[in-house]
Amino acid sequence: CHSGPPWFSHQDGTAPLWIASQMGHSEVVRVMLLRGAERDAARNDGTTALLKAANKGYSDVIEELLKFSPTLGILKNGTSALHAAVLSGNIKTVALLLEAGADPALRNKANELPAELTTNERILRLLRSKEPHRKSVKGFLLPK
């Protein structure tokens, strides 16, 4: 229980939307977003609601958050929701983020691509299907 306004944040910057996302409450996430919750509000460590939902593999929460065009790129904590989804091993969350435009060619702060964080063949195939194709000139592959 807390006192304060409805969008009260904890000392570490954790907002109610982040908590609802962490708990997998997609209906609560939907209502909060419709009522003006900041979709990209991050904890002090840079973790957003989308990154937390991706980390937990909550595809229903991700679907709600994606309706509000959250940031899909590298966050201030040095990683992306796609990296988190790949690490979670949840194929549906990876697919949702890729369909929304998450870039599988972005490197995290450790200089890792999402594909370097898994050995799951289905996830690797999904990631490869969204990579920009290398152009060839007279049969020679050009570096990306």
From TrEMBL:
It comes from the Eukaryota. ANK repeats lie at residues 12-44, 77-109. Keywords: ANK repeat. This is Ankyrin repeat domain 29.
